[in-house]
Write a structure and sequence with these properties.
single chain, alpha+beta, D-Maltodextrin-Binding Protein, domain 2, five-stranded mixed sheet, 11 helices, 41% helix, globular
Amino acid sequence: MARELGQSVVVENRPGAGTTIGTDFVVKSPADGYTLLLATFAQAVNPSLIKNLPYNASRDLIPVAMVGNSPNVLVVPSQSPFQSVADVIAYAQKFPGKLTYASQGNGTSAHLAGELFISLTKVDMVHIPYKGASQAITDVLGGQVQMTFATASAAANLVRGGKLKALAVTTKERSASWPNTPTMIEAGVKDYGMESWYGVCAPVGTPREIVMKLNAAVIAATKTRFFTSKLEEEGLMARAASPESFGQYMKQEELRWEKIIQAAKIRLD
């Protein structure tokens, strides 16, 4: 983007509170196009998970551009007896409440991927939340937890190295980065589909001409071979889009996950 815009772009990490600290900072920033948010899957689920958000994302932010998406991947230790999703379902049906899955925390993509799995297969699994992906995967590798719906970036190297076994990707179509791994639908879980995603947003009130200039810069960046190769290494796919289509996508995601979160009675506060 710096090359396209002709000026430096500084990445400032403001972690904490499930992305709400960074988001709140952007919401309260001047609407001049100089402070942007790299929004994630969390933007779609936080309104249903957190009762008193300090902002209303759909009101206080405007979409600039979709950047990319990735599947989560259902993985088990390489020595696990589970060879397929069907094996996982059969075990869960035979031993209700005995199957465990790890996540990087309540309300994260791995947690909600598991809740969607439970909803569609009607099995009884136990969610084990951790304070980060590395801790969750460490205990899966050690056999303390049986599986996890890991992000593609967290699982890629461990699957390539033979330490984890990938049973399915969570997207409705096969991932170009995981061509030999079936989708959940192909593995027998009808209607299953979820993805992690990333996109750029700006404070509401940012002029349309600035939004479109930023959108063009994002699209140009995602088309470079350097950028796409870096994404592929992490199991991600570039998928730039217009402000309008990105806005529609975010709204659809928010409505879809609201139903899952309410049914599972998940709250973070």
